[in-house]
Amino acid sequence: MSDARRGAPGTAGLVLGGLGLVFGLIPAAGLVAWPLVVAGLVLGVLGVVRARRGRGGHEGVAIAAIALSALGLAVCAAWVVLFGRVASDAQSALDDLRAQTGEGAVLVYEVTGDAAGATISHATSTTVEREVAGLPWTKEFTVMGGFRGGTLDVTAGPDGGTVTCRITVDGVEHRTATASGPHALASCSD
């Protein structure tokens, strides 16, 4: 077997390690670089082992293959760390943005009037119906995200009377409505 063929693993490792290093420097080419540097490292080690056992080849070429491949592997690993950090920072920034826009708003539904009885229906994401014997009635809760309103309907009982609904968000009135008479409906929607 010729000396050139005996040194083939070290030479192949050098070529693959060099290509892997070049591709490793290009961020998007990292998928190609990983297998090249790993193959270059394996072939470089094989070349050193063969040269030390006297089976031919140039030990220096094989050592250079190991060095280039290790450097290429380090570059690929650095890209992984960098991309991981960037992704983590982006996620943190997105979480901060969500927290800023989603601090929550205090939503208050109020029903007042002189009706002896009333049916109150209010909704944000689900509808809840309540029979109320007397007024006033108030419901306060915190809503998150971009949602800043809802629906509040009040119907006077069969004995009539006046009913008024009011929706406030963070202390600012958004809607108010008044109705009078038996089964009169005051509707506040935002």
TrEMBL record:
<keyword id="KW-1133">Transmembrane helix</keyword>
<feature type="transmembrane region" description="Helical">
    <location>
        <begin position="32"/>
        <end position="49"/>
    </location>
</feature>
<feature type="transmembrane region" description="Helical">
    <location>
        <begin position="61"/>
        <end position="82"/>
    </location>
</feature>
<dbReference type="InterPro" id="IPR038468">
    <property type="entry name" value="MmpS_C"/>
</dbReference>
<protein>
    <submittedName>
        <fullName>MmpS family membrane protein</fullName>
    </submittedName>
</protein>
<comment type="similarity">
    <text>Belongs to the MmpS family.</text>
</comment>
<dbReference type="GO" id="GO:0005886">
    <property type="term" value="C:plasma membrane"/>
</dbReference>
<feature type="transmembrane region" description="Helical">
    <location>
        <begin position="7"/>
        <end position="26"/>
    </location>
</feature>
<dbReference type="InterPro" id="IPR008693">
    <property type="entry name" value="MmpS"/>
</dbReference>
<keyword id="KW-1003">Cell membrane</keyword>
<keyword id="KW-0812">Transmembrane</keyword>
<dbReference type="Pfam" id="PF05423">
    <property type="entry name" value="Mycobact_memb"/>
</dbReference>
<keyword id="KW-0472">Membrane</keyword>
